[in-house]
Amino acid sequence: MSLAVLSSRALVGLAAPEVSVEVHLANGLPAFTLVGLPDVEVREARDRVRAALQTSQFEFPQRRITVNLAPADLPKEGGCFDLPIALGILAASGQIPADALAHHEFSGELSLSGELRPVRGALALARQAAERGRTLILPAANAAEAALVQGVTILPAPSLLAVVAHLCRHTPLEPYAGPPLAPPPAYPDLADVKGQVQARRALEVAASGQHSLLFYGPPGTGKSMLAQRLPGLLPPLSDAEALETAAIHSVEGSFHAARWRQRPIRAPHHSASTAALVGGGSTPRPGEISLAHNGVLFLDELPEFDRRVLEALREPLESGHITISRAARRAEFPARFQLIAAMNPCPCGFHGHPDGRCRCTPEQIARYRGKLSGPLLDRIDLLLEVPMLPVADLQATPAGEPSAAVRERVARCRQLQLARQGKPNANLAGAEIDAFCQPDAAGSKLLQSAIERLGLSARGYHRILKVARTIADMNAAPTVGAAHVAEAIQSRRGFG
Fold first, then answer.
1. Are 313 and 288 in contact, with CB atoms under 8 Å apart?
2. Distance from CA of residue 273 to its chain's centroid?
3. What is the average pLDDT across 445-451?
4. Mean pLDDT, the chain, integer
5. 143 near 156, Cβ under 8 Å?
6. What is the SS3 string spanning 239-273?
7. CA 252 to chain centre
8. Most CB contacts within 10 A, which of 64, 77, 426, 468?
9. Would you state the pLDDT for residue 179?
10. Residue 399 has pLDDT above 70, yes or no
């Protein structure tokens, strides 16, 4: 048989569309042609496949070889097509039975010795293979990741020879049945934080309603320490959330099975570019906001980030996803992250310090704070000052409340929100806010007074309502009262 057809998959964002690998052998001068919109990595497969076949003691046909990756208008990248191309050549030249290729999908990069190297996006490949009811053959290093998908048979293979032995029914590959995944490492405990009662309360409110939070205050007051403890307060990931989070990291090539069901926390340096933060590249790849999906994005020293980078956060903060468009490609990634940021009150960091050590002029302070635009600050639910700790609090030995106790309250509050509206309070919009967040008469009067006095925008008004709803849920109150509105307003007073 001079024609062989087998199935593989490409990666487009989080999707894995099917690619039909067609290999044809014809008479004529020896040649190896690869068509179907391959990028440089895929075109290089010709040399890897030739060397892998020869070192594995297979015959490389001295004929005109044409490999078509269909559909032709779908861009293909990466080394995942090495294995299906090599098997297609063997099947087309009669060295392995072509009928054995049916009901399988293949993915893997070949080394020159014929060993299989891991590929990106194994989780996405497994999800699509499960939907089609096919068996997935891929490198052994990807097996633990792909096996997270329920209902798919994973056949890990160490080399091209092992795959051929399986297809020829000499030595069948065993389905993956690895050890159970290790539990995720423990998060830092909130009990380590001394004092800062208001900041701890704000952290619990943020965790209970999935609200964004900005800490500002002098250096060394515990802003970063508090932010790093937020993931430990959040409820466990559901099965769907864990799978979606793992799929994003799989596409990026940074997934580790030991992190299964662990909420991600991303803390990019302030020198990060816009593409690094929101995603980009000629071939769209997820950025930090997508890698923080269902987790926490911590931006320390917020005003030190480039203003254009910060402004790029405005849309995903509202929509929960990011669309990256390029001339030839377009990809969409989820970005439902919880933003936690920290900043100093002035360039030197000691504005308002009791010993008067700050020497920043009012113009310098205004310029420093002006790096954060009004529209961006308007999208942050909680803005809280973290003051210097008294010496007595620093020397106190009793620990604060542990994360486990706070996490139980947060989980109950989240369950209440999911039962009522199917989502956390921070994600409510439009008619949902009117239906679930309206305060009583006293609360409405207080909120109206605050809007007139503080000059709040419509977005700020809605943010206060959602935070007040969360505070009411924490108190198991059926309606939003004046006390809940007052605390929400106090947590959004802005810079002092």
1. no
2. 17
3. 88
4. 90
5. yes
6. HHHHHHHHHHHHHHCCCCHHHCCCCCEECCCCCCC
7. 9
8. 468
9. 64
10. no
pLDDT at 443 exceeding the cut of 60: yes
CA distance 361 to 345: 12
CA distances from 493 to 39, 200, 381, 464 (A): 52, 17, 11, 11
Distance of CA 77 to the CA centre of its chain: 21
Dihedral pair phi/psi, residue 373, rounded to 5°: -70, 155
The pLDDT value recorded for residue 94 is 93
Angle at 183 between CA 234 and CA 334, to 5 degrees: 50
Q: What is the pLDDT of residues 203-242, one digit of tens each?
A: 999 999 999 999 998 888 889 999 999 999 999 888 889 8
Cβ neighbors of 32 (< 8 A, separation 6 or more) are: 46, 50, 65, 67
- Cβ-contact 84, 42 below 8 angstroms: no
Residue with tokens 């106790």: 405
Contact 462, 430 (CB under 8 A): no
Minimum mean pLDDT range among 3-7, 61-65, 122-126, 346-350: 346-350
Is the whole model's pTM more than 0.90, yes or no?
A: no
Scanning the structure block, which residue is given the tokens 């092992």?
162
Q: How many CA atoms lie within 13 A of 450 on its CB side?
A: 24
The pLDDT, as a whole number, for residue 31 is 94
Output the pLDDT for position 388.
83
For residue 3, the one-letter residue type is L
Give the model confidence (pLDDT) of 249-269 as tens digits.
Answer: 988 888 887 778 888 999 999
